[in-house]
From TrEMBL:
<keyword id="KW-0333">Golgi apparatus</keyword>
<feature type="transmembrane region" description="Helical">
    <location>
        <begin position="12"/>
        <end position="29"/>
    </location>
</feature>
<feature type="transmembrane region" description="Helical">
    <location>
        <begin position="222"/>
        <end position="243"/>
    </location>
</feature>
<dbReference type="GO" id="GO:0051119">
    <property type="term" value="F:sugar transmembrane transporter activity"/>
</dbReference>
<keyword id="KW-0677">Repeat</keyword>
<feature type="transmembrane region" description="Helical">
    <location>
        <begin position="161"/>
        <end position="178"/>
    </location>
</feature>
<dbReference type="InterPro" id="IPR004316">
    <property type="entry name" value="SWEET_rpt"/>
</dbReference>
<keyword id="KW-0762">Sugar transport</keyword>
<feature type="compositionally biased region" description="Acidic residues">
    <location>
        <begin position="265"/>
        <end position="274"/>
    </location>
</feature>
<keyword id="KW-0813">Transport</keyword>
<keyword id="KW-1133">Transmembrane helix</keyword>
<feature type="transmembrane region" description="Helical">
    <location>
        <begin position="135"/>
        <end position="155"/>
    </location>
</feature>
<comment type="similarity">
    <text>Belongs to the SWEET sugar transporter family.</text>
</comment>
<dbReference type="GO" id="GO:0005886">
    <property type="term" value="C:plasma membrane"/>
</dbReference>
<keyword id="KW-0472">Membrane</keyword>
<keyword id="KW-1003">Cell membrane</keyword>
<dbReference type="Pfam" id="PF03083">
    <property type="entry name" value="MtN3_slv"/>
</dbReference>
C-alpha cells in the first residue's frame, strides 16, 4: 500500500508540477500575441524562449531514458509551444531590422552611388536572419548533436541517463541564467518592466514542486537545477517588489503602420517621395 508521503511526493507533486509547468510555458502567449499585433517586442526578452526549446527537448529525452511519464508530460507541451514563441520573436526582430534598414536606406539616398550600393548589400545581408533565429538554431544544433552521440553513435553506452542528465543541467543553468541580464537592466533603470511577472511567479512555484519531487526520488538531476531556479526566481520576484513597473510592459503604445520600401527602389527616381513605398497590409 502506498503511504501518504509516497503519494504526495511521488504522485501529487509531479502531477501538480505538470499542470504548473504547462501554465508556465503558456504565460508569454498573451504578451507575444499583443506584441505581434503592435509589431514590436517592446520590453519582452525572447532569449529564454530559445533556451526553453533546448530545456524541454533535453527533459523529454531524459524522461525517455528514465521512463518517467511525469517529466515527459510536463515538458512536451512546452517543447511544442517554444517553437511558436521563437517564431513570433523572430518575426518581430526581422520586422524591426527591415524598418531600420529602410530608414537607413532613405537617409543615405543622397550619398554617392557606390556607397548606396554597398549599403544595399549590407542591408540584404542583415535581413537573412534575426538574432532569435541564430540563438534558436544554435540550441537545436547542440541538442541534435548530443542526441545523435548518445542515442545513435553510442559514445555513452550504458551511461545514457547520466550524459543526458548532465546536459540537461547545463541547459537549465543557461535557462535560469538567461534573465540575469534583465536583472541587471532592472537594477540600472530601477524599473522592472523587462521582467515578465507571470512567468517568474510560475517559475518559482514550478521549481519548488520539481525540487520536492527530485528530493523524494533522490534524483539530483531533477532537484539540483530546480533548486538553483527557485533561488533565481525568488531574486527576480524580490526585484519586482523593490522596483515597481511603470505599466508599459509588452509592446505598448498604439499600433503604427510604417511604410515599407522595396530595397531595390532608387530613391532618386522621384522628387516628391521614393518610388516603391507602400503601406504594410496587416491582418489582425
Amino acid at each position: 500500500m502506498v503511504s501518504v508521503e509516497e503519494a504526495v511526493f511521488d504522485y501529487i507533486c509531479p502531477f501538480l508540477g505538470c499542470l504548473i509547468a504547462s501554465t508556465l510555458f503558456a504565460a508569454p502567449i498573451n504578451d507575444l500575441r499583443k506584441s505581434l499585433r503592435e509589431r514590436t517586442l517592446g520590453s519582452l526578452n525572447p532569449n529564454p524562449w530559445a533556451i526553453l526549446t533546448g530545456n524541454c527537448l533535453g527533459w523529454c529525452s531524459y524522461a525517455y531514458y528514465t521512463n518517467d511519464p511525469f517529466i515527459l508530460a510536463s515538458n512536451l507541451p512546452g517543447l511544442v509551444l517554444s517553437f511558436w514563441l521563437n517564431m513570433g520573436a523572430a518575426k518581430l526582430q526581422y520586422l524591426a531590422q527591415v524598418d531600420a534598414a529602410i530608414a537607413n536606406r532613405l537617409d543615405k539616398s543622397t550619398e554617392h552611388a557606390t556607397i548606396g550600393t554597398t549599403l544595399q548589400e549590407n542591408i540584404k545581408e542583415s535581413l537573412i536572419y534575426s538574432p532569435q533565429d541564430v540563438l534558436f538554431l544554435r540550441v537545436v544544433i547542440i541538442w541534435s548533436s548530443v542526441l545523435v552521440c548518445v542515442g545513435w553513435l553510442g559514445y555513452f553506452q550504458g551511461h545514457e541517463t547520466q550524459a543526458i542528465g548532465a546536459m540537461v543541467n547545463i541547459n537549465m543553468i543557461f535557462f535560469y541564467a538567461a534573465p540575469l541580464q534583465t536583472m541587471k537592466t532592472v537594477i540600472d533603470t530601477k524599473c522592472s518592466d523587462s521582467i515578465h511577472s507571470p512567468t517568474i511567479t510560475l517559475n518559482c512555484v514550478n521549481a519548488a514542486f520539481w525540487f520536492l519531487y527530485g528530493v523524494a526520488r533522490r534524483d539530483i538531476v531533477v532537484w539540483g537545477p530546480n533548486s538553483l531556479g527557485l533561488c533565481l526566481g525568488i531574486s527576480q520576484v524580490a526585484l519586482c517588489l523593490w522596483y515597481p513597473k511603470s505599466g508599459r510592459q509588452g509592446g505598448g503604445g498604439e499600433m503604427e503602420f510604417e511604410p515599407v520600401s522595396t530595397l531595390d527602389a532608387d530613391p532618386d527616381d522621384s522628387d516628391d517621395e521614393p518610388e516603391g513605398i507602400h503601406p504594410i497590409p496587416v491582418t489582425l
